[in-house]
Amino acid sequence: TFWTHKSVVPLAQENDPVDEIVKRAHDLALKAAENGWTGPPFDPFQLAEILGFSVLPREAVRDARLVPESRQRFRIEYNPNQSKSRIRFSICHEIAHTLFPDCRDRIRNRLAKDEMGHDDWQLEMLCNRAAAELLMPTGSFANLAESELSITRLLEVRDELSVSIEALLLRFVKLANLACAVFSVSQDERSS
After folding, report:
1. How many C-alpha atoms does 16 have within 13 Å on its Cβ side?
2. Tens-digit pLDDT profile for residues 118-150
3. CA 91 to CA 140: how far, in whole Å?
4. Cβ distance 82 to 63 under 8 Å?
5. 71 Cα distance to chain centroid
């Protein structure tokens, strides 16, 4: 089958892992909203607090990592030298790791591309999808669909929400009332 990562396979069982992780992130955002989490913009530090997680700045951490502390508690460590939008996304990414059944098995470090095993990208991609859902929960951005379709306006919204342009464009395409698409490419350094 397509999905092979040892954390991903038990997540979805018979369901599509992308649908399952988005559903779990959506459910988590709804529960957090019931406990006082408001936005936009949605504060990942407040979300971590609602969940009972500690969040600590650590310059030695490249990006962010999730450290299991006990059966119910986690600690998120993040690099405070990253941009504000990167920190916000990284904290949500680490919270997303807790949506997987084996999240307490080990410390989860954000892996660089060259550190990934052959299927680690599956876990990281799903955590990115969940992080985007936590930063910009479905149903919270109805007015985004009505936004003027110009790069200038979208960049303004990105700054208002402190999210990456990629996350904003993906949410915009999902909500837009017109035919549009977004794609991203990067060069594979090994082939150059």
Report:
1. 4
2. 888 899 989 989 998 999 887 777 676 666 667
3. 20
4. yes
5. 23
